[in-house]
Amino acid sequence: MPTDISQREHTLAARFHAFIRDPAFPCVGAKSALAKGQMRVLLARDIASSWDDLAIWPAIVDLAAGYKRQPTLFQSLAVLFTDSTQSDEATFERHLWRRIQSLTNKDAWLGQQPDPRVSDDPANPHFSLSFGGEAFFVVGLHPRASRPARRFEVPAMIFNLHDQFEQLRAQGRYEKLRETILVRDLALAGTENPMLARHGSLSEARQYSGRAVGSDWACPFAGRPETQNAL
After folding, report:
1. How are beta strands 3-4 and 39-44 bridged, if at all?
2. Distance CA 24, CA 22 (A)
3. In whole angstroms, what is the distance from residue 55 CA to residue 2 CA?
4. For the segment 101-155, what is each residue's pLDDT rounded down to a tens digit?
5. What gap in Å lies between CA 16 and CA 77, rounded to an integer?
6. How many angstroms from the chain centroid is the CA of residue 94?
7. CA distance 68 to 79
8. Distance of alpha carbon 207 from alpha carbon 77, whole angstroms
């Protein structure tokens, strides 16, 4: 079973915290979540396996429920896969989407309703994932990522609540935050990230794995299933 390291220190979690805290790391939203004690970390086994999916899913739903009760900005869940072998970007992308599909299937099978504010069609510009009735997007990290900001020592999936970005837009803070991250990412990588786009202009599915994909890329996600076939 995954281990919730909020209850005990773990060296991998400490190294993940250091990765986020590094002055060069570009995502200031992740830095804020960690600084506020609002970045949960969960340890799982192999990203290529469904072994821990039934334990990962409740942690995502718990984050959604907590956010509904208190919609404080900058909350996220980082799942670190401790036993995974290193793989190239295409293989990591395949494993990431298999985990997403499995977790989505379980969300449907266990009676959760999708967030009506987003689409489950990965070709739709308003696509997002739904867990516990809240929209999420995922940031994938792994050792062989081409972008330095996505390069961590083990594969990881960071689950972020979509409504936080709607809050930032409503407060007039979204564009400044986005520009800050882009500038910092450029300084770290030396090149602009070709995959970043605003929500609603292109499907965010293209950004999840961190791999640069072309216009002919087809997302390996079948959408949200009928509940009787969810597992």
Report:
1. antiparallel
2. 5
3. 7
4. 999 999 999 999 999 999 999 999 999 999 999 999 999 999 999 999 999 999 9
5. 12
6. 15
7. 21
8. 18
